[in-house]
Amino acid sequence: MKKLDVRAYKGVVFDLDGTLIDSMGMWQEIDREYLARFGLKAPENLQKEVNGLPFTEVAVYFKERFGIRDSLEQIGEDWREMARQKYVNSVPLKRGVRELLFFLKEEGIPTAIASSNHAELIESILRRHGVRELIGPIVTCDDAGAGKPEPAVYLAAARKLGLPPSCCLVFEDVPAGVLAGRRAGMDVCAVRDPDFLRESEEAERLADFAIDDFFPCIPL
Q1: The one catalytic residue among 17, 22, 173, 193
Q2: SS3 state at 209
Q3: With contact defined as beta carbons under 8 Å apart, do 178 and 206 qualify?
Q4: Is beta strand 168-172 parallel, antiparallel or unpaired with respect to 11-14?
Q5: CA distances (Å), 165 to each of 180, 181, 186, in order?
């Protein structure tokens, strides 16, 4: 696998959950806790089924698959409130995130976020960790009109940065996200997660680069 040098790119686009923040386990907890309200158990493959889908499409999936009677708006609001509480109290940044963001800022390399999460939640977690001012535009899959592995959200992020996709580097943690970046014409670096080895291995296989944390991305 090639050695990564972020200075070779004119822009960097980050996924959020599982990439910048260590939150994939949190979303599994939310799924379990939410379905338990209705006396339901979360299937083992649930995260794989919904990874990359826009926030609103995940609500549709839950409503149809599990027969949830609440409105889509109520489902979304319940999730956002559960996530707010966990984001505020228990979700850390991945190792080296803050240091890499400072480095990119100093180098004049613009950044963006392309995520399937809800914009309000993205803003809240970045501000809690004091890194919102280090990151440029935020684009969600809902904004782009399609979830990952479709490339729409990454193409939209490149447009926001005013850059050709081929000049941008993507950081992603799941196969659907890696495929979205590749289909957008961008190089992609997979961020491994020891708690999700199967998905991490598949993401690494599809990516151009792979890292365990962000410190190796900061040139000495």
Answers
A1: 17
A2: strand
A3: yes
A4: parallel
A5: 12, 9, 6
Q: Is residue 17 annotated as a catalytic residue, yes or no?
A: yes
Residues 26-51 pLDDT 10s: 778 888 888 999 999 988 888 778 87
Q: What is the pLDDT of residue 197?
A: 82
Question: Which one of 5, 15, 22, 173 is the catalytic residue?
Answer: 15
pLDDT at site 136: 98
pLDDT tens profile 56-108: 888 898 889 999 999 999 998 898 888 788 777 788 999 999 999 999 999 99
State the DSSP code for 50.
Answer: H
The domains located in the chain, with CATH, are: 6-22+93-217 (3.40.50.1000), 25-90 (1.10.150)
Nearest one of 164, 109, 110 to 137, comparing CA atoms: 110
Q: Where are the alpha helices (DSSP H) in the chain?
A: 24-36, 46-50, 55-66, 72-90, 97-107, 119-128, 141-144, 152-161, 175-183, 197-206
Catalytic residue flag (residue 15): yes
